[in-house]
Every structure is written in structure tokens, then in C-alpha cells.
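quick q for whoever's on today - can somebody do inverse folding on this one?? i tried earlier but teh output was garbage lol. C-alpha cells:
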């Protein structure tokens, strides 16, 4: 009987811990997105949030990583005056984290797999915002969808490429540094 109670308490603590870590990574994603915002010609901004989105995917796994990855940056958009981007950010960042975590699980815990996962996640970000900004431009009457796809939506790609490069490098370096720490490996067995 005592073992059953202990197992139930452990399971409850694991679920509670996962929720707390998800909230923590959502908060970190918010801060990383807000701390440095460099406006882009498309009306968006380059930020540090992708680093936390990808790192959260490695540490929390696909479900919790996706929740944290979507909520934090979406809140940053909302509170930064970019409310029109909130739905896109919520979905794009969640899909980024989900994909990064699933690919990381599939490829194994190798250094090169982190780079592959981060590149895949950032490809989602670049294409996702390109399509979203195309829809915004077409809805604003700046031309047909195809014209906007080629011109208007593409204006954000250079800034997103810069953000992607930083997100890939920083998330990989941080994950590798955390992997060297025994306590971090104990707390985050996915790492």
C-alpha cells in the first residue's frame, strides 16, 4: 500500500513539475522575445525567443515544449503591440518546438542532431511567417496573393534568417553546455 501511495505522489509531482517547468519556459520565452526587439521591414521584429523555444523542446519534450514555446512568444507579441501576430506566433512557435522535440527524439542525443532539429524548427518559423505576412499583405489589398507571396511576404525573410541563425547557434550551444552539467542531466533526462 505504501509503495502505491509513493508511486502516486511521484506521478503527481512529475505532472506538477512538468507544469511548473512549462510555465517557467513560457516565461523565459516571453523575456527572451521582449529583451531585444529589432524591427524588420515587414512590420515584425527579430528577437532572441527562438533560442528558448528550441531549448525548451529539447528539455521538456514535444507536448510541454510546444505549449511553452507557443505561449511565451505569443504573449510577448501581444504585450509589445504586435497583437496581429499573436495567432501566427502561437501556432508557428508551438510547431517549431514540437518538430524540434520529435526530430531530436528520432535522431537521438547526438550533437549533430541538435543542429538538424534547430534547422528544421527554424525552417518552420521562416516559412510560417512568410506565409502569414503574405496573407496580411493580400488582405490589406497590396496585391494578389501570388504578388504578395513573391514580394510583400518575402520582405521579412532576411530578418527571419538572422533570427534563425542566432536561434540555431545559441540553442545548440546552451544545450551542449547544459549537457555537461550533471544536475541538468538529472533534471532533464531528455537532454
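ok took a stab at it. sequence:
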Amino acid at each position: 500500500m505504501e509503495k502505491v501511495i509513493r508511486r502516486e505522489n511521484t506521478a503527481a509531482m512529475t505532472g506538477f513539475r512538468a507544469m511548473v517547468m512549462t510555465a517557467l519556459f513560457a516565461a523565459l520565452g516571453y523575456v527572451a522575445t521582449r529583451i531585444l526587439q529589432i524591427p524588420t521591414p515587414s512590420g515584425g521584429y527579430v528577437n532572441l525567443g527562438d533560442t528558448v523555444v528550441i531549448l525548451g523542446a529539447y528539455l521538456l519534450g514535444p507536448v510541454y515544449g510546444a505549449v511553452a514555446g507557443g505561449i511565451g512568444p505569443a504573449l510577448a507579441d501581444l504585450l509589445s503591440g504586435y497583437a496581429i501576430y499573436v495567432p501566427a506566433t502561437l501556432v508557428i512557435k508551438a510547431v517549431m518546438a514540437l518538430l524540434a522535440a520529435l526530430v531530436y527524439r528520432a535522431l537521438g542525443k547526438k550533437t549533430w542532431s541538435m543542429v538538424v532539429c534547430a534547422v528544421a524548427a527554424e525552417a518552420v518559423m521562416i516559412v510560417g511567417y512568410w506565409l502569414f505576412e503574405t496573407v496580411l499583405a493580400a488582405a490589406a489589398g497590396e496585391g494578389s496573393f501570388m504578388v504578395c507571396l513573391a514580394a510583400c511576404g518575402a520582405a521579412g525573410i532576411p530578418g527571419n534568417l538572422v533570427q534563425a541563425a542566432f536561434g540555431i547557434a545559441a540553442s545548440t550551444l546552451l544545450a551542449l553546455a547544459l549537457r555537461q552539467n550533471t544536475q541538468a542531466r538529472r533534471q532533464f533526462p531528455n537532454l
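fwiw The CA atoms of residues 72 and 135 lie 24 Å apart. also Confidence is low (pLDDT under 50) at residues 8-13. so keep that in mind when u check it
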